[in-house]
Design a protein that fits this description.
This protein is mainly α. Helix 1 runs parallel beside helix 4, helix 5 runs antiparallel to helix 6 and helix 12 packs antiparallel against helix 13. The two termini are 34 Å apart.
């Protein structure tokens, strides 16, 4: 693992990102429960309430929590960014997002406008609080490299999809669902997946693959152009979809082409890493590359089938790519944080990152998770598969939660002992 270039003095307390990470799998369990009590016919309709609730349990409850938690840690450490009042922001944005997400999900599920209103306020204020803090921290970065440019682009898309999401929730609160609602919903979902999720992962990959996997660095063209090209494609897709719908396929091909190029590049980089030791996180990156390729091209062909397969596209890209990467990175990030913070306090006789995660359980979790995604796709043809897949998904999320809690227990247990070396004498006094 390459640790050169890390700004250790800017790292926030471990509780800042970890509270987001440990909550995410619990929302995964909740999403699985919603799936279990749903039916495949309802889920085939992207605008059905079951689909909307399940989608946002995963996208907000899991993906957004992990991504926001990761950015609060990555920006200070990887780029030396100074996030204003990081503990205040992470603590209260977390509480607002937690309350807002739960109220929105159950409000939509039960048709309770009061809960939807609380969800509207909680999510709106929570997202804006942490996104504004992240945006301000980006202004303090001196080395605006490819990773920071990608993160900055994804944050811009994040602001836009949050405002669109609030508009959509307001429509449910007021029972005012117009044609514009469905247009905005389509833009909201595509920009959330590609503009926020995919672009953020691309930027993170530029830094993470060489650091954690000692893989070759990305080519200059990839670092400088891919994010810009995908962003341009998303803007073109928006214009075509609204004003010239018959040409939207051109923008889809544009986006899919460069997304597929990135997926292929990741696969090749993993094959050329200097330490070709395979673990479950490598499996997740490889599986994600396959899912992203399949999902991107299915998104193109879906144009010719009156969007009959759009939910499968969401499963392949949202679940198979973004969710897979998030899970794989959590297996790396949380042990790294535990090791990083304990080492900085002077503890030397601590477990290595690889020793903090139960390898057999992580492999089982991977099998159950990938199996559930495949099952969700087959559930559109064999309805009885849905409940089996939902159970598999829930169990995989429970195992993931256990695997994430275990390193934190090591952290707490170690903190109760005396450090090998007292590093407090070397820390700067806080004014």
């Amino acid at each position: 693992m390459k640790l050169a270039g890390l700004s250790t003095d800017q790292a926030p307390p471990i509780s800042a990102p970890v509270r987001f990470f440990l909550t995410a799998p619990l929302f995964g369990v909740l999403a699985g429960a919603f799936m279990f009590f749903s039916d495949s016919a309802s889920l085939m309709n992207r605008f059905s309430m079951d689909s909307i609730v399940i989608t946002h349990a995963i996208t907000i409850g899991f993906l957004a929590f992990v991504m926001l938690g990761a950015m609060t840690q990555m920006l200070p450490v990887l780029a030396g960014a100074k996030m204003p009042r990081v503990m205040f922001v992470t603590k209260y944005s977390y509480l607002l997002l937690l309350i807002g997400t739960l109220c929105l999900l159950f409000g939509l599920f039960l048709g309770d406008h009061s809960l939807e209103l609380v969800g509207f306020v909680g999510l709106g204020s929570g997202f804006l609080m942490i996104l504004v803090a992240i945006a301000l921290s980006l202004k303090t970065v001196s080395n605006f490299n490819a990773t920071i440019k990608a993160i900055s682009t994804s944050v811009i898309f994040a602001f836009l999809i949050v405002f669109m999401g609030l508009y959509l929730v307001y429509g449910y609160i007021t029972d005012d669902i117009t044609k514009a609602h469905y247009i905005v919903a389509n833009i909201h979902s595509v920009w959330a997946i590609f503009g926020f999720g995919v672009i953020l992962i691309i930027g993170v990959a530029f830094q993470v693959l060489p650091m954690f996997y000692v893989a070759p660095k990305f080519k200059r063209f990839c670092k400088r152009r891919v994010v810009w090209l995908i962003s341009t494609g998303l803007v073109l897709w928006l214009l075509f979809s609204v004003f010239y719908e018959e040409y939207a396929i051109i923008a889809k091909i544009w986006i899919a082409l460069f997304v597929w190029a990135f997926a292929t590049t990741v696969w090749l980089k993993l094959g050329k890493r200097k330490r070709p030791i395979s673990d479950v996180t490598v499996w997740y990156w490889r599986a994600a590359s396959i899912f992203l390729t399949l999902g991107s091209f299915l998104w193109i062909f879906d144009e010719y089938f009156k969007h009959e397969y759009i939910v499968m596209v969401a499963i392949l890209i949202g679940g198979g790519f973004i969710l897979s990467i998030m899970i794989g990175m959590m297996y790396k990030i949380i042990p790294f944080l535990v090791w990083f913070h304990l080492n900085g306090m002077g503890y030397m006789t601590i477990p290595t990152m690889n020793e903090m995660i139960n390898k057999n359980l992580s492999r089982l979790q991977f099998i159950l998770f990938i199996g559930s995604l495949v099952g969700f796709i087959f559930a559109f043809y064999y309805s009885w598969v849905l409940q089996i897949s939902a159970v598999s998904f829930m169990v995989s999320m429970m195992i993931l939660e256990y695997n994430m809690v275990e390193p934190m227990l090591i952290y707490r247990k170690t903190r109760k002992t005396k450090p090998d070396f007292d590093m407090s004498a070397f820390s700067m006094p806080k004014g």
